[in-house]
UniProtKB/TrEMBL annotation:
It comes from the Bacteria. PROSITE patterns: ABC_TRANSPORTER_1, ABC_TRANSPORTER_2. SUPFAM superfamilies: P-loop containing nucleoside triphosphate hydrolases (SSF52540). It comes from Desulforhopalus singaporensis. This is Amino acid/amide ABC transporter ATP-binding protein 2, HAAT family. It holds the Pfam family ABC_tran. The keyword Transport applies.
Length: 235
């Protein structure tokens, strides 16, 4: 397993949000984390990335326990977090944002290769290379956030709500890009509200409710599960 989360408990101050959450993700997998608003999905992502220290439990990435490691250290180890907030440098251009994403790379030739790759993945970004991030549309910002996360040459990406607020056509572009990245070997953990599309694109999924994993399995099976169909698919 590339990522192992065992009995994770996490929260904010005295408030506990996650209760004994366990996840296992193998190298090259595309795994989804699904659940209603407030279930704790983003808290899982923040705990794994290093932004939120766990209260208890173990998080292991590529054989190393990373419970108390800083987010920047995890990024250098190959774990990239693309948050729901995006956290772009709005006063910088697209190119400058992407260059910031590659700062941890010592190999400048690899940084150039990664830049070419993300422009191939999102041609719209290359067309607007000198445009300030703060002037981009919502879809372009999502593309830039994903592209910047790829610039560090990660082994695995944590992607939080990539389709939030996007038009259907742009959502399709983002999901197709994630599927292409996965087919090229990138491991993905995806948090997403669009359950139907998520289960069609991912290979496995975990269902998180009230801070606990209540279901897990192949996405092709979960999409026909009575609980999932009733609560998340409205059928």
């Amino acid at each position: 397993m590339l990522l192992k989360v065992k009995n994770l408990n996490a929260g904010y101050g005295f408030l506990n949000v996650l209760w004994d959450v366990s996840l296992n993700i193998g190298k090259g997998e595309f795994v989804a984390l699904i659940g209603p608003n407030g279930a704790g999905k983003s808290t899982v992502m923040k705990s794994i990335s290093g932004l939120l220290p766990p209260k208890s439990g173990t998080i292991t990435f590529d054989g190393q326990v990373i419970n108390n490691q800083d987010c920047a250290v995890n990024c250098r180890s190959g774990l990239s977090y693309i948050s729901e907030e995006l956290n772009l440098f709005t006063g910088m251009t697209i190119l400058e944002n992407l260059e910031m994403g590659a700062q941890m790379l010592e190999d400048k030739n690899k940084a150039r290769e990664n830049l070419d790759f993300v422009f191939e993945l999102f041609p719209r970004l290359e067309e607007r290379i000198s445009q300030y991030a703060g002037t981009l549309s919502g879809g372009e910002r999502k593309m830039l956030a994903i592209a910047r996360g790829l610039m560090s040459n990660p082994t695995m990406v944590l992607v939080d709500e990539p389709s939030l607020g996007l038009a259907p056509q742009v959502t399709d572009e983002v999901f197709n890009a994630l599927r292409l990245l996965n087919r090229q070997g990138l491991t993905i953990l995806l948090v997403e509200q669009n359950v139907t599309k998520t289960l069609k694109f991912s290979s496995r999924a975990y269902i998180l409710e009230k801070g606990k994993v209540v279901l897990e399995g192949p996405s092709s099976e979960l999409i026909t599960n009575d609980h999932v169909r009733k609560i998340y698919l409205g059928t």
